[in-house]
Fold this protein.
Amino acid sequence: MFKYIDHVAIHVKNRDEVVRFYCETFGFSIHYESIIPSGEKIVYLKLGNTILEINEKYRGDIIGSHFCIRTDSFNSDYQKLIDKGLKICQPVHHTNPRIPEELGWQRAVFEGLGGEQIEIRR
């Protein structure tokens, strides 16, 4: 079952400048940093229960900004989106854990009806 939005990703021109701005202006703190398979660095910022993913114009299968929905039944929710006819942008694969409890989690990305990209994660 889908639970809540895990994070919103913002694709920017200058990641380091934007990270500094959000931290200094709004009080976000760096929650997690990761290098994805393309070699690009992404930074997760946290403010309360809100997580923003900041990265520079990713050139892979994910284009533009996206949002991620957490699920506690990944396989059935993944199939539900396939059954709805949504196009798969990135098939199921493991994701780097931001915290130890996320070790072994999976993610997949779909194209929504309006062309938006929807990531599901568990």
Q: What stands out?
A: Helices lie at 15-26, 74-83. The beta strands are 2-12, 29-35, 41-47, 50-56, 66-71, 87-94, 106-111, 117-121.
